[in-house]
Amino acid sequence: MTEQAISYQFITSNEVLEQQCQYWLTQPFLALDTEFMRVDTFYPKAALIQVQDDKNCWLIDPTKITQWQPFANVLTEESVLKVLHACSEDLDVFAKLSGEVPRPLMDTQVALAFLGETLAVGYQRMVENWLQITLQKEETRSDWLQRPLTESQCIYAAADVYYLYRIWPMIQQKLADQGREVWCREECNQIARLASMPLDDEFYYLRVKQAWKLSQEKLAVLQNLAAWREQEVRKRNQPRGRLLSDNQLWLLAFKLPSNRFELSQIDGLRPAAIKRDGDQILELIRLGRERSQAMWPNSIPSPIGQPYRDWAKALKKLVRSVAEANNLPPELLVRKRQLEQLLNSAVRGELNQMPEEWRGWRESLIGEPLLAKLTELASRR
Fold it and tell me: What is the DSSP letter of 120?
């Protein structure tokens, strides 16, 4: 089936937005989406906000709006469920524009995972599966900051919420039929809560690949550099890789350069970057090396060594078993990074309580079985 004819209205003034927000506050749910550009910046550049209510599809032009508080009130109104699909980057857009993320939140991509789909069902596939409508994809990579937008762009943007608004009640009913709606709402609200929490830059170094190869002294340097980079890219509003890539962070921590010439030997580190930030980078390296041993980060167990490798295999087998028994994708039960962090703590003998992110619906389903399995594995060590 081809797409239906979709009408839409633009909002280009603070007054109209405020008026419409008053109506949206009366709605049981809204379908939301955003269009943005994120090519040469850290923060997304908002280009369009789409809202579908029970009557109309609205396209908010963020280049024309200066007063976002009425919209922020809608985003945080507890009686209005905000429905999105694959919302992670959209949450960044809302937070940057209004200072708020949508809550209560429902991400239909997550909802489909609770119904036994993978955690990666795209919007076009969802619409085709639930409504038997094939959406056009021509505008996916178009320039959303151009003005005026083309009719094709506007129809594409409107479709992202028009069909979402119609699909959500169908998904909600199926979630309720399978006894999964409470779990799903809890998961989505945790996504919103985590998105609204301040970032902890001190732990970003744990995301750097191969960090486990570094000594504790060098991990202290990596921690300094990674935290500084996170603060700087937000301040300068530029992509991480434009300042320092993860690989360059690792090389700096591994080689420990002590002067500008040695900095110039780091692969990909441009002369302009050394001129601008070289002294700061060298100072961060020096401070990391001068930390007392008591202040060093914990060592990271080798993922290819023992007992990490065998324990990881056992835990992944358990996760797959529980996932199959409950018709859930394994990646919904436990994220890869969460499992790695759990294993790191367990191998060091530091695991003594349930990770906070496993409270709620996960606790009895997978959290307690994983902790029991780790206790069993540790007892054999």
Answer: T
